[in-house]
Amino acid sequence: MKPYLPSCVLLLLIAYLGVQALTGERGLLSGGERDAMLERRETQLGDLLEQKRDLEVRVRYLQRDSLSRDLLEERARAVLGFADPRDYVIRVSSAPRQDVKPHNS
Predict the structure, then answer these.
(1) Is the pLDDT of residue 8 over 80?
(2) Residue 104 has what pLDDT?
């Protein structure tokens, strides 16, 4: 049995590495998953970059040397929850629940 033990261990190691090369996280058969994840991450990166640009513009308008009165008023209203008396406020109710059955008269 002793002469076959190193050969058996080597064969099992080669089989394990072969299976991992095909089906592992970075294996040959997981290329589609990697491509899909890359696409999702690129979309996420685009959204984050757009948010960053929007925040940079807002910060620029809220600095002392270039203060935008409209943006300042908008932020104050959003944070404090106030509305101008001249504003029209339209309340929108949430969508009707699906489990409630209508009455048939």
Answers:
(1) yes
(2) 59
